[in-house]
Specification:
This protein is mainly alpha-helical and about 130 residues long. The protein has one domain. The protein contains five helices and no strands. α1 packs antiparallel against α2 and α2 crosses α3. About 10% of the residues are buried.
């Protein structure tokens, strides 16, 4: 990727936007960075996913540090999930490198749609339950 002034400015804006969304919703890597890298910067799907994994490191560190000051981080659970995720990412990255680009993009999109749909349904149920009370 050639770094021009326009590319640099777009990357900064995308990073700030992703940081705001990560702080608000606890998302960043797959949900924000990957689509941005693919759609705005024309990355290949696998390159976007790999770059996203690296880009999320400072986002997660700063977000966790900020939330720690309000005692919102359950560190034991985070460490257990983190160790599991670190082991799982080795397998997932291996599979990702072996899948055709189009298949990887389709599976990624399906995961985003399913996750988003589940969140909408779950939030709707909670809202409905509050109204019934």
């Amino acid at each position: 990727m050639d770094i021009t002034v326009v590319t640099l400015m777009l990357a900064i804006v995308a990073g700030v936007g992703a940081g705001i969304l990560a702080g608000l919703f606890g998302v960043g890597g797959g949900v924000i960075f990957v689509p941005t890298l693919v759609l705005v910067f024309s990355f290949h799907q696998l390159d976007a996913q790999a770059t996203s994994l690296a880009a999320i490191i400072p986002v997660a560190a700063v977000g966790a540090w900020r939330q720690t000051s309000d005692e919102n981080v359950y560190w034991r659970g985070a460490m257990i999930m983190g160790i599991g995720a670190a082991a799982g990412v080795l397998f997932g990255a291996e599979v990702a490198t072996r899948l055709p680009e189009d298949t990887l993009s389709q599976v990624f999109g399906a995961v985003l749609l399913l996750s988003g749909g589940e969140m909408i349904v779950s939030a709707s149920r909670r809202l409905k339950a509050k109204r019934v009370r």
